[in-house]
Amino acid sequence: MKHYGWALTCIGGAGVLLTAVMGYTYAPLVQSPPFRSPEAYRILFWHVPFAWTSFLAFCLLFIGAIAWFLKRKEWGWNLFCTGSDLGLLFGLGVVISGPIWGSAEWGVPWDWGDLRLNTFGLLTAVALFIVLSRRSQPDGIDTRDTLSTVGLFGFSLVPITALATTVYQKRHPSVVITQSDETGLDPKMLQVLIIGIFSFWILMIGLSILTFLAYKLENELRHLLHSLDEEVVH
Amino acid sequence: MNVHPLIQISSLDIHRGSRLVISNMDLELSEGEVVALVGSNGCGKTTLLESSAGMHMVSSGAIRWRYGDSEMKTVRDSEGRRISLPPMGLTLQKNGMSGEETVEERINTVLAVSGCKINQIQLSQLLSIWGLEHRKSDRISQLSGGLARRLAVLSGMVPAVMSANPRAVLLDEPSEGLDEVARALLVNWLRALASNGHGVILATHDPEIILAADRVIRFDGMHDVSEQLQDQVHSNFELPEPTNDTKISKFSSLFNWAYRMEKRNPIDTLNRIIPSILALLLAHTLISEDEILIVGTDFFAAMVLLPSFISVVIPPALISRYSEENCGRWWSAVIGPKFRMASSIIGSSIILPLPLIYISWFVLSNNISNLDNSDISTWLWLPGLVMFSVAIAASALHLLVSDLRRSGASVVSLLLLVLVWPFIELTDALDMIIVDGMSIGYSLDEPLSMMILACLVSMLVWAISVYLPDA
């Protein structure tokens, strides 16, 4: 499994770099107006895949939290840890690339009135909370219970984010991959975007495998340490 | 004579952290017996005792307590069932008392949550037996360690002492920190409690206390638990006269306790008011008519609501009071599964949001000349009401994080960010009221629906934070 993990991570990473290169060289420039800062739009080729991939990572977090919460499955906890790490990684990608684009295009990096931005920012904040707390708290059932509760709480924001995307959309543009009169993309842009999305997904799968295996090994190590503790005490 | 069980523990597995501390444990406490749990440090005595009070999540097995004359009910099990304990006595390893309480308040609180009521004479009699009568009006923080331990031990036994019905008493290392006289008194009370039909489980290292037990359960490792019976003679030691049982008032006792603590030392109110007033003063210097023309009335609306919002997201002082000497754990054991819900409401800023919104409005609206004050101030109570739901959601999130063993090492503000959403909805709603006046409509762009949405989001956050951890 480890080899698959490394292979997928390398392939995904290469695809992510290829997306950046194609975004700069192959994808055509958008017109100004309506775009205020046409060059800045190219960040879309990372921003959108980051967002879609982070949702997948948050799904892992949710499945892990449910599995731990209901069945106390060790794999559930490992999946929860993996999901929170990757959710934070890709979520940070979104909340960093978004404001850069927003500053250039809207003139402001963040809009507190846009629920889509805010709920996504919150999801990333929840992932950050989980990652920081996991590192600072002693591992144990009670800690895991509390953190998986926070994970479930965070994931309950996903449908709210989806609702915000459609009902409360203010400043953030609508979903661009859908073809319609309003949201259609140039075929070349679409190609780069699709390559980007698949590359990020492959990268995420690779990283998920590696992270999951790392947590599994960490848990095995912890159990061994506890066994040693028992031998020392008795 | 029929001897009924008071507590039955069957096939109990308890994890602490990632370690299995109690494995496949069976234990029964009957009327009229004292059971001593004995063993080396870390062997699981305290965990078993606290688990008997339903304080730990059960990995496997069940804990049952007697309610009334003979009905046994499961108070906690591995399926997640949990109900409130019947009246009982509990002394934790740490005293479980807040330093702000006075000695007499502590005894009265303990009796109120266990359905007993005594008069001043009986109270003085009880306290004088334990050498505490002269300190009855003093705060617990002013007592020496030994006197505070005497009070904690007395608090654990008094619900049984003052009841004519058999009750269970759980004492964790009761003799720790007591002097010779108090230890002798404790032994006499233990035997007298047993003679009066009550049951006691205690964890101890003290040989004198172990000798007073009818049954000694010795832990020599997780799977090596032995039991030894000891003969005891019937005690003729006289305990104070029991009173008639009265109505149990757990929630009102918690509320009264929290109110008294705050009244005596208003750290919650001050911690909330000071940053709010600072925010208001800053907003007052920032907001002028010219500024509003540039940035819009939504900024003005946000400034009106900001002091109130700040006041509700500040960590409740109740949490720091709970953390003192395991006071919160004592209350949690006594109140049971609804402890979190009750605490999130009691600990939240109930009174401040509404007046703060009105104060902000009157202070800030003076800076702007063309506002129709009367119509807006008529409706300001609505966002104030919604802010109360934000307050209990914030309080529940703080409580959720306080569950972590190193809660101080967690960044709770990352979770509080969710409350920015109701705040923004409230800002939009107030902005609309300021610009167009209040309208009663239910479309998503109406101020009323925005406030309902803000309230729903807050209640959702509250419900998740309160119910999921105990599910």
Structural notes for this entry:
The complex is a heterodimer of chains A (234) and B (471). Chain A is mainly α and 234 residues long. Chain A is built from 7 helices and no strands. Chain A has one domain: Up-down Bundle (Four Helix Bundle (Hemerythrin (Met), subunit A)), CATH 1.20.120. Chain A starts with a helix and ends with a helix. Chain B folds into 2 domains: 225 residues, Rossmann fold (3-Layer(aba) Sandwich), CATH 3.40.50.300; 218 residues, no CATH class. In chain B, 50% of the residues lie in helices and 14% in strands. In chain B, the strands form 2 sheets. Chain B has a 6-stranded mixed beta sheet with strand order 6-7-8-3-9-10, with helices on both faces. In chain B, α2 packs parallel to α4. At the A-B interface, α4, α5 and α7 of A face α18 and α19 of B.
How many separate helices of chain A?
7
For the largest beta sheet of chain B, what order do the strands appear in spatially? 6-7-8-3-9-10
Q: Which CATH class of chain A?
A: Mainly Alpha
The radius of gyration over CA of chain A amounts to 20 Å
Order of helices and strands of chain A: HHHHHHH
Distance between the termini of chain A: 38 Å
Structural class given helices, strands, pairing of chain B?
alpha/beta
Gross morphology of chain B:
elongated
User: Spans of chain A with pLDDT under 50 lasting ≥5 residues?
Assistant: none
- CATH architecture classification of the largest domain in chain B: 3-Layer(aba) Sandwich
CATH class of the largest domain in chain B: Alpha Beta
- Following the backbone from N to C, one meets helices and strands of chain B in this order, namely EEEHEEEHHHEHEHEEHHHHHHHHHHHHH
Helical coverage of chain B, percent range: 40-55%
Tally of separate helices of chain B = 19
Q: What about the largest sheet of chain A? A: none
Oligomer: heterodimer
| CATH level 3 topology of the largest domain in chain B | Rossmann fold
Just name the CATH architecture of chain A: Up-down Bundle
The fourth-level CATH homologous superfamily of the largest domain in chain B is P-loop containing nucleotide triphosphate hydrolases
